[in-house]
Amino acid sequence: MLILACADKKILKRWQDAFEGDKNYLVVSNTSSLKNRLKNQPDVTVILHRLLPGISDSDDATVNQLHASYPDARLMVLADVPHEQQGIDFIRSGILGYANSLISPEILREAIKVIELGEIWVSKRLLEWMVNHCRDVEQHTKDLGSYLALDMLTPSEKHVIEHLVEGNNNKEIARKLNITERTVKAHLTSIYSKTGVKDRLHLALLVHNNGTL
Predict the structure, then answer these.
(1) Which residue of 40, 76, 123, 148 is 20 to 30 Å from 108, comparing CA positions?
(2) By three-state DSSP, how is residue 182 classified?
(3) Distances (CA, A) of 11 to 51, 72, 185
(4) What is the per-residue pLDDT across 77-92, written as a single tens digit (0 to 9) for each?
């Protein structure tokens, strides 16, 4: 089940367009309604507008508290004016996704597919910023096994990673490598198994910390 938590009609319409005809979803327009839904059905995916009524405009802690209260919910936060540090703080708190509220329908669908697998999804801009600016890259990767695992990757798997660290989603990677999305997913599954990482964000950080493929 997917919950669209948004009171802004224009933004909500964009989100609804993303899942028209191929995704069951319900809409809530304030935090009270969202909490009631999560109490009854905690294992859901939520696309949360950062300015949903009932969430403080100036304090991101209210979003983190919502996540802490319903940890089984897979939460993606979309902000009208996204900030890199805000995104990093949300991801660190356990929220699985962060992007601009006006994300394209196509990319939003891709993001939800990733999040429903329990993986982290962030915008291309934020991924690039995190890889280049995070000061705690070693902290993120120190428990992910030996960097020598990167040497175990096949040439095809390395090509997938090269595009992934640039922030490309599966569909973009498939197009650039002239392979199917299913093949991209198979490569990623193999890469995660070999390196010990759990998602594309940690994989990008591992590659960045290693310095080369």
Answers:
(1) 40
(2) helix
(3) 11, 25, 30
(4) 999 998 888 888 888 8
